[in-house]
Amino acid sequence: MPEESSFPTLKRLLVGKPIPSHLAHHERLSRVTGLAVLSSDALSSVAYATDFIVATLIVAGTAALGYAIPIGLVIAALLAVVAFSYRQTIYAYPTGGGAYRVAKENIGENAGLTAAASLLVDYTLTVSVSISAGVLAITSAFPSLDVYRVQLCLVFLTLLTLGNLRGIRESGQIFAIPTYFFVVSIFVLIAIGLYHYATGTLTSVAAPVPDSAGTRQLTTLLLLTAFANGCTAMTGVEAVSDGVPAFRPPESKNAAATLVTMAVLAIAMFLGITFLAHAYQVMPTEKESGVSQLGRVMFGTGPVYYLVQAATTLILVLAANTAYADFPRLASIVSRDRFLPRQFMNQGDRLAFSNGILVLSAFAALLMVVFKGDTHALLPLYMIGVFVSFTLSQTGMVIHWRKKRTPGWKTSALVNGFGAVVTGVVLVIVAITKTLEGAWIVLLLIPIIIALCKATRRHYDHVASQLTLRNYTPQRRVHNTVLMPVGGLQRAVVEALRYAETLSDDVRAVYVDVDQSATDQMKKDWETWGGKAKLVILESPFRSVMEPLLEYIEQVENERTDDYVTVILPEFVPARWWQHLLHNQRALLIKGALLFRPNTVVTSVPFHLAK
Amino acid sequence: MPEESSFPTLKRLLVGKPIPSHLAHHERLSRVTGLAVLSSDALSSVAYATDFIVATLIVAGTAALGYAIPIGLVIAALLAVVAFSYRQTIYAYPTGGGAYRVAKENIGENAGLTAAASLLVDYTLTVSVSISAGVLAITSAFPSLDVYRVQLCLVFLTLLTLGNLRGIRESGQIFAIPTYFFVVSIFVLIAIGLYHYATGTLTSVAAPVPDSAGTRQLTTLLLLTAFANGCTAMTGVEAVSDGVPAFRPPESKNAAATLVTMAVLAIAMFLGITFLAHAYQVMPTEKESGVSQLGRVMFGTGPVYYLVQAATTLILVLAANTAYADFPRLASIVSRDRFLPRQFMNQGDRLAFSNGILVLSAFAALLMVVFKGDTHALLPLYMIGVFVSFTLSQTGMVIHWRKKRTPGWKTSALVNGFGAVVTGVVLVIVAITKTLEGAWIVLLLIPIIIALCKATRRHYDHVASQLTLRNYTPQRRVHNTVLMPVGGLQRAVVEALRYAETLSDDVRAVYVDVDQSATDQMKKDWETWGGKAKLVILESPFRSVMEPLLEYIEQVENERTDDYVTVILPEFVPARWWQHLLHNQRALLIKGALLFRPNTVVTSVPFHLAK
After folding, report:
1. Which of A274, A412, B356, B558 lies 20 to 30 Å from A421, alpha-carbon distance?
2. For residue A205, what pLDDT is reported?
3. Is residue A469 part of a domain?
């Protein structure tokens, strides 16, 4: 048996080495690594946002695809507005301005909880959608793998879970390579595409038009739906403003520069791909993405094409990974306000984050299995949460400026106010076009989560009021009556008895008489091994052991009012886990029976079995 | 919160009132109730045994069905032989002569364990097969219910489980009505059938001949398979000899008379149904049983037919119920020999039986789900266990007579020897014809169960050798160092501290310094609430709480050799179950970390939350 506790080893294995306080500074992000770590969500969404616009428009026929360009331009403009809005949050909240905090401080508790619930749902969907889209990049390249779609999703999820439990989060460098490779390869793709377009040498994708094409009229609702779907390009913009304190000083300045770089890159890539998708008549399906179709045309189905697909998969998996930093951090902040179980609260080591990671993975896995790893099926659920938190955060900022009235506050308020209106309008459009397609799940889930948060807070408040030391006088209990139920005498019992004798002068072994000859033997053995303890023999007309025991404990408790009753139970600690099944059931029952009894303490004295 | 423990109430609800010792006598069985309680398994098997013969023969064409009559006669003769053999066991083992005991005492431990493993498997299959056949009687009457076959099986299983947990076993009367009603209705059916046959007024069942008919040759193997399948009629014969002590005195005489009555009834019903099945050209399928087809012809599809089907279902469910008495009893006997976990051992109240009931139900449910509640699919697994135990039991009886040499022992040995040979031959036939069809599962399972039993026994023997008081000198430990990790001061901590002070003069509260201002506050509060205890403050360079704590505990243990270390943890006992999720994670971790440490006792001092 281990001389040392087995716990630190297990924890070390699962969650990695602890970080000493004075090292925390060294891990801060530069602009280059910051862009890699915090932008993968925003940048990677260009891999699917255009597809969603095209796939929506096609039901009104190929002619409707022309609307993709103006819709793309509107979305790009919105992205610029939102990025500019968040740039202000970075300067106003240099210690991190997540939507929860901004909404709670400026609007109120309910707004904060709404933002938190939306974000928790959103992070879970980010994991599911990003991994699904990453797997789509693989199955686009290797169509025969499509039947293993859900399995592949779960493999990536498992890798992310284990990596994050061990602490992959710290290494900014490993993010840089796939992120920058993705950005470069997309720009190369766009450049080649534009060159062919300009020189008139383009060959269209020539993908088969789906059966659904032209089955519906081109209505305003359809255009709004295409717009709403394209707004996935805006997800992830908030990540930099949440992570300001992770930057090297000057934190705000570095973060703001990173945010602007990210926005410019995202807008350029999104517009480029959207333009090419139209020019090359891309026709994305749930089995092949638009970027993959473009890649095949530009590079041919050769090594460069496969590299681009690999980079797409990698950045999407990294995008999922950002949720693994965001979800536990938000859960920790919310649980510090006692709205979530304290198991999520970071208390010095990484254990709390492990709980957040496991909860996130469990829900993301559920979504992947239920929606069969299909990004198009998950999409309607995705954006409600994002835009609820956008709108609340921007609205909160407007109130923030009105309260602070720092120089230039009116301009700032105007910028954030515009952002709030814009994201609010998108939210309404998303809600209108998506509710029946599945967004109702999220619209139902958010209030449920809020209610659970409030119930949790209420419970902790009740507990705090029961724990306060104000006006508290402890009961005068000075004596301890130690009882030890015994079924016979053996080494574990005798050792527990010796332990019991160190606790009190009043130790009583309690034996239930179910068989006269066994009782006589017990009395005889007691003379040798009993020591200072007293032997109490109880009658049992019903052959039951438990009931006389419980009655006796009650009787002892009534004997005097100034004592505790301590019940000592020897407990076997087996050498192998399965041996647990062979022991201790009765001890467990006694513990269960005494759990709600006041002033009664049950103590298990371990007896370690060698094999 | 309950003033009294909630345990007895819960137990009462689940397992019923305890039976006082002096009442046990009143519940003994008369011949009439004994037949009802112990014979339902044997009698009910006539509801399906004939079907299995016919369904096997039909693959060789309708002409082959003529062999059903001679096969039926052979089985009837065997049933008489086996019953006569077991009649001797009743007199030789008036305190109950189960196959486990007879084989173990007379042949040896391995034979006993083989019999026990076979019977445990067999009882599980009895539950599955009987309930499935009972549901078949329902779906025969109402074919539209066939799609809910598995669900219906699980409903009956749940009812039996709950009924047995509450103690349905005691009421012999409720068994009598359906058993005797079944017997009477089968005899009425046979009488009407014979009357029509004799008067030449019979109309055949005219069920459609299945597609498989005539697809195979009539081989010896096929005849043996039909015979083996028909031998299901013999299952349950041993039940009376197992239950001798449950009879009113003179126990053996009453039991023997009951056994003979049962055998006569079973043989008459089996032969009658087999004869009619042939005469009326019954063609059982997995959707309609032969008895149901006969019933429709004899009574028309009217109220009498439905009553017969209801009686069939009821007696089959009762047959399953006998396994609920047998399985826990056998498990209890085997665990008394320490071959099964002691949780199965009856120790005065019914709790041990509850464990047996739950295990039996779990495995039976698994079988029903895996084999989709189809009796024909479960059949190949069924009989191996029955005939292994028959053969071992009869062989054991031969050895028993040879040892005892009581007057007339040679005749007795001859009878049992003949029984052993007959059941051994059937066992071989069953093994040959059934192994590939699924009996391999059972042939694999029996040695696995035996191995588990031996591992269990070995473990308990090791434990016993570690627990013996022979040559044992307890360590001299007279002192108790009481440690209490505290994260701050509140009521639960102060109460636990007061408790700790009753245990020892050396009580130390251990506080981990992760934040200077919190530590200062702690020191200040300590002056008010600390009492006799000493405050120890630990540094934590890694912001971790657990590691400095565990290191300090180790350090304290090295301070002196004559003491125990008791770690006191306040533990919240919430008023509602879900609130458990919100508390005590850290306490659990500390407990886990200290579990394997010698001479260290962890004590939780409960703090009861009001809401």
Report:
1. A274
2. 80
3. no
Mean pLDDT value across residues A4-21: 45
All residues of chain A having their beta carbon less than 8 Å from the beta carbon of residue B593 are 5-8
Query: From residue B84, how far is each of A537, B5, B259, B521 by CA, in Å?
Result: 49, 53, 9, 86
Q: Which of A276-280, A542-546, B322-326 has the lowest mean pLDDT?
A: A542-546
Q: What CATH number has the domain bearing residue A199?
A: 1.20.1740.10
Sheet holding B479-486, edge to edge: A534-539, A506-513, A479-486, A563-573, A600-608, B600-608, B563-573, B479-486, B506-513, B534-539
CATH of the domain at B503: 3.40.50.620
Which of B6, B596, B598 has the CB atom closest to A596's CB atom? B6
**A264: pLDDT strictly greater than 60:** yes
- Asked whether residue A448 falls in the same domain as residue A550, the answer is no
- Asked whether B83 and B263 are in contact (CB, 8 A), the reply is yes
Range of the domain at B352: 29-459
Domain tally for chain B?
A: 2
Say yes or no: A503 and A402 in one domain: no
A542/B20 Cβ within 8 A: yes
A 471-510 residues with CB < 8 A to B: 472, 474-475, 477-480, 489-492, 494-495, 498-499, 502-504
Determine, for residues B343 and A598 on separate chains, whether the beta-carbon distance falls below 8 Å.
no
pLDDT, residue A15, reads 46
Residues of chain B in contact with residue A583, where contact means CB-CB under 8 angstroms, are 342
Is the pLDDT score of A286 beyond 60?
yes
User: How would DSSP label each residue in A112-160?
Assistant: HHHHHHHHHHHHHHHHHHHHHHHHHHHHHH-GGGGGGHHHHHHHHHHHH
Q: Do B264 and B385 belong together in one domain?
A: yes
In this structure, the answer to whether residues B309 and B419 fall within a common structural domain is yes
Give the number of other Cβ atoms within 10 Å of residue B442's Cβ. 23
Instruction: Nearest chain A residue to B455 by CA: give it.
Output: A579
A592 and chain B: CB distance < 8 Å anywhere? yes
Q: What is residue B226's three-state secondary structure?
A: helix
User: Is residue B566 classed as helix, strand or coil in its secondary structure?
Assistant: strand
Q: Give the pLDDT of residue B1.
A: 34
In the 3-class helix/strand/coil scheme, how is A385-400 assigned residue by residue?
HHHHHHHHHHHHHHHH
